[in-house]
Amino acid sequence: MRTTSWRNGLIIASVVGLAKADAAAVGVVAPALRSDLHITTAQLGLVASLASGTGAFCALPAGGLVDRRRRAAVVVVALVIWSLALGVVGFATGLFLLAAARIVAGGVATIARPVAVSLAADIYSVRDRGKALATLDAGQAIGTAVCFLLGAIAVRLLDWRWLFWWLAAAGLLVAVAAHSLEDPAPVREPGPPLWDVIRSLLHIRTNVVVIAADSVGNFFFAGVASFAVLFITERYGLSNAFVDGLAPLMAVGVIAGILVGGRIGDRLTRERGGSRRLVVAAGCQLTATFFFAGSLLSGSVVVTGFLLFFGASILGGAGPCLDAVRVDIVGASIRGRAEAAKGLLTLVSSTLGPVTFGLVATAFGRHVHGSHAARNLAGGLALRDAFLVMLVPLGVGALILLAAVRPYAADAAAAGTEPEAGMLEG
To answer: What spatial distance separates the first Cα and last Cα of the chain, rounded to whole Å?
Structure first.
């Protein structure tokens, strides 16, 4: 049983890792892609937003498939379609084909989180869910790191197109492995209709608060994913390949934060109740906001790097705590659709994020005449100002989370979550 759980966990972590790599791919090679296809920063933001928008449109149908169909089959079909779409991105010669392929890939990738969370909730008990879901979040961080590393190799030695072809090949390999995925509950009750699910989710106060906080946070994250590489290359005069190559080092800190955050949340759940996971998440998110602000204001690339590393590491601890809370407060028959509904709302904010970042950066843009280096520096400063403005939602989201501490225990009990020691304490 332990071997089966480990194998299932590895497969579903790979699925969410690929989905996260997909979300980061355009941002990873943004400078090279922009130069090769002759597209603007605003158009890059539009491509990222279109992919997120399609994911938002497909989120609820994807959750329904997860709740009502054999989850292994759903994963396999999604991975094959997603891989084909990524392969097409590698052949793009202009904005139209790039956007069309990204729309398809974004729509299919939205199934990753619902199926992963649904399976993890069936495999692991309440007291260990933070640690288990931390593994999924670590998979996402690894997927992003691998995407940056492959992007650095592609840009430096080959061509940016190879990044998408390599990700497509990885998707097909995971699809082969997922074909034999052992589902602990292959036959499940169909659960209530979709609109009943949505109404029940809206009546769970903890769920509403957590999704609101996630939405404003993802608004910031989506912009970061699309423009972070471009910002650092222009602000500090570093190469695209060099910045991409540093991403695995950043991922080490993020993964450490995720794993530590999951374990701290589980320990506090056993001692004082699951609501303490919300306190951990809020603290991590608020602290990370200050670290990120310091990194943006620093003129030293070394100081900026250290502050970004520690900020990203601390922020990683919030993810598994919030994932465990969402699983605790919804019934088993609707977890796929509940995660999809959360994904829908956060994808809407993710859709707005890159476009808003691009427009704000353009508004802050300094019209500098002169050398290429001077124009790049002006572009980097405009992006810095945009990031500072967009940090506000990240801090606000941390404060919003604290409003869910009091109603958590009642919502978890209503969902049939077996209380642990201290869980009934507000």
So the answer is: 36
What is the rounded CA–CA span in Å between residue 91 and residue 168? 12
What does the pLDDT read at residue 115? 76
- HSE-up (13 A, CA, CB side) for residue 318: 27
- Comparing CA positions, the residue from 98, 91, 86 lying closest to residue 44 is 98
CB atoms inside a 10 Å sphere around CB 142? 21
DSSP summary character for residue 298:
-
Percentage helix, strand, coil for the chain under 3-state DSSP, each rounded to 5: 85, 0, 15
Contact 353, 124 (CB under 8 A): no
For residues 133 and 161, what is the distance between their CA atoms, to the nearest angstrom?
A: 32
Domain made up of 2-180+193-414: CATH architecture:
Up-down Bundle (1.20)
Q: What pLDDT is stored for residue 3 in this prediction?
A: 54
268, 425 in Cβ contact below 8 A?
no
Residue 91 neighbours by CB under 8 Å, 6+ apart:
97, 161
130 in Cβ contact with 320 (< 8 Å): yes
Residues with Cβ within 8 Å of 267's Cβ and at least 6 positions away in sequence, in order, are none
Q: If you average pLDDT over every residue of the chain, what do you get?
A: 76
Query: In this structure, how many other beta carbons lie within 10 angstroms of the beta carbon of residue 322?
Result: 29
Q: Rounded to an integer, what distance in angstroms lies between the CA atom of residue 19 and that of residue 86?
A: 11
Give start and end residues of each alpha helix (H) in 273-371.
276-297, 301-316, 318-328, 335-363
Q: In this structure, what are the phi and psi dihedrals at residue 38, rounded to the nearest 5 degrees? A: 55, 55
Q: How far apart are CA 162 and CA 158, in angstroms?
A: 7
Give the pLDDT confidence of 192-245 residue by residue, as tens digits.
666 777 777 778 888 888 887 777 777 777 777 677 777 777 777 777 667 766
- How is the chain split into domains, by residue range? 2-180+193-414
For residues 380 and 234, the answer to whether their CB atoms sit within 8 Å is yes
The C-alpha atoms of residue 14 and residue 175 are separated, in whole angstroms, by: 10
- Integer CA distances (angstroms), 62 to 65, 178, 367, in order: 5, 17, 45
Q: What is the pLDDT of residues 276-298, one digit of tens each?
A: 888 888 998 899 889 988 888 88
Distance CA(76)–CA(176), nearest Å, equals 7
By C-alpha distance, which of 414, 351, 61 is closest to 207? 414
